Amino acid sequence: VCSSDLNARDAIVGAVRKIRDAGTGRLLGVAGAACGGDILFQEVCRELGIDTLVCLALPPDRYIAASVLPEWVDRFHRVVGSVGVPVLSEQGKVPAWLTDKPGYGIWQRNNLWELCTALAQDAKRLTLVALWDGLQGDGPGGTEHMIGIARKRGAEIQILDMRAICAVSGTDR
Q1: What is the C-alpha to C-alpha distance for residues 144 and 133, in angstroms, rounded to an integer?
Q2: Alpha carbons 91 and 44: distance in angstroms, whole number
Q3: ∠ at Cα 147 (149, 50), nearest 5°?
């Protein structure tokens, strides 16, 4: 995310409002709680009165170590809250029956889990709002992977281009 997340947040607000204002029925925001887009999305949905579900790939302490910068930890805790949230894997490993799948790990499985969780909510329409710079991520299971699997499952994809968003604020990644 840019050094100032204000432009990214504004872009997410615009995308989520557009979805909300389309009036397609009950809305549920499903995402993780990584610093940047995940936390911003969770915050925006809640501010707009949209129910959210936080899905963590790992228990909170391990998730923070893997995906949350120190300056985002307080916001992580506000998003996650004091009640339990669904956790995909206590140990950070995929189930034994998936260990023979080359290059497949907890983060790809987490993307599939979030997508399936959203679909299991009796979704009439699935829209992925992705804050993305168009580049390959820093590892498997990132934004590029999520966009690919959502596209394969027929989701509407709204990409918020981080390159343009950061250019507006005069900063870069």
Answers
A1: 9
A2: 30
A3: 105
